[in-house]
Design a protein that fits this description.
Length: 188
């Protein structure tokens, strides 16, 4: 069957990078290009499964565990994994990316602190005498290690994503439906 996508838009998109999207025109396109963990049903506004086929939350409302569909694929046929979500959300938390919606990820335990630490580290690096690529790579590796240690975001396996929030958040699934919470295909 035909699978046309028709988008009527009066201006060009600023970006197709989901974590850098900011303008409504970009976010409108995101709904056609990307699929997050969940989506908002257009008929009644309810949250429905998308890449995540199911999810659970802990009794205290802070720990969310998403199970991804095993048939979720990128357009090139690669499987969409929990690590793809971690990579996308990690990118959004890098001040280097200059994403407008980074603060929306601050509901995740350790995310705001990581963002501030990375910003301070890159500022200090910019002022340092050692501007070599090796120094920048070492700083990035250190930041990625710090991310794994401190931010409440884990790919338990290819199909299981765990998110630990700072505190219970009634609208967390609504955030997950927002375009900037889309995964990224790391090789691309």
């Amino acid at each position: 069957p035909r699978a046309d996508v028709v988008v009527a838009q009066t201006t060009d998109c600023f970006t197709l990078d989901p974590q850098r999207m900011s303008y409504m025109k970009d976010l409108r396109i995101a709904r056609s290009l990307y699929e997050g963990l969940v989506r908002i049903d257009g008929s009644d506004g309810s949250i429905v499964p998308a890449v995540a086929e199911s999810w659970t939350t802990s009794e205290d409302g802070r720990l969310w565990t998403f199970t991804l569909r095993d048939d979720a694929k990128w357009s090139n046929g690669d499987t969409v994994t929990a690590g793809d979500f971690v990579k996308g959300w990690q990118r959004a938390l890098l001040p280097d990316l200059a994403a407008d919606y980074s603060s929306m990820f601050f509901v995740i335990d350790g995310a705001a602190e990581f963002f501030r630490e990375r910003a301070a580290a890159t500022d200090a690096h910019a002022l340092s005498e050692d501007q070599s690529p090796e120094a920048a790579e070492a700083l990035f590796a250190e930041s990625m290690s710090r991310f794994k240690e401190t931010v409440g975001l884990r790919a338990i396996d290819e199909r299981t994503l765990e998110v630990r929030l700072k505190e219970p958040l009634a609208y967390f699934l609504d955030l997950c439906a927002f375009g900037v919470f889309s995964p990224v295909h790391p090789p691309t």
